Amino acid sequence: MSPESTPGHAAHPHEIEMPHASLRDYLIGFALSVVLTAIPFWLVMTMPLSAGATAAIIMGFAVVQIVVHMIFFLHMTPKAEGGWSLTSLVFTIIVLGIALAGSLWVMHHLNTNMMPMPHDMNQLP
């Protein structure tokens, strides 16, 4: 017998139950996902805006869709697992941001400090 099933033993008070999603939550998440996919698809197919504006809008929709998936399908809320899943997500985003920014910085400086290629030698004094 496990300790939880023996008479006189209550469940541990620090155990937190995961939030349960209803069919309504899944349908809302699905509908939002479809809309957040259809609008960028329409933007790419019809090109009503400039390429830069379209790219910025699509990236915005992608971020919103990530948040929708985390809330409605992964159930990542501040209440889930005592807030540790959300805390670990924030830490992961910070580490990824540092890694990406550092990589872009290094690549930029490598590009600007490279020796000129042979076709660029003609432009040197």
From TrEMBL:
The UniProt entry lists the main location of this chain as membrane
Query: Which InterPro entries does the UniProt entry name for this protein?
Result: Cyt_c_oxidase_su4_prok (IPR005171), Cyt_o_ubiqinol_oxidase_su4 (IPR014210), Cytochrome_c_oxidase_bac_sub4 (IPR050968)
Ribonucleoprotein: is it a keyword of this entry?
Answer: no
Query: Where does the record say this protein resides?
Result: Cell membrane
Which UniProt keyword terms apply here?
Cell membrane, Electron transport, Membrane, Oxidoreductase, Transmembrane, Transmembrane helix, Transport
Query: Metal-binding among the record's keywords?
Result: no
Q: How does it sit in the membrane?
A: Multi-pass membrane protein
One of the protein's GO biological processes: aerobic electron transport chain
UniProt xrefs under Pfam families: COX4_pro
Q: Which regions span the lipid bilayer? A: 26-45, 51-74, 86-107
Q: Which domain of life is it from?
A: Bacteria
Quaternary assembly: Heterooctamer of two A chains, two B chains, two C chains and two D chains.
Q: Which NCBIfam families does its entry note?
A: CyoD (TIGR02847)
Q: Report the protein name in the record.
A: Cytochrome bo(3) ubiquinol oxidase subunit 4
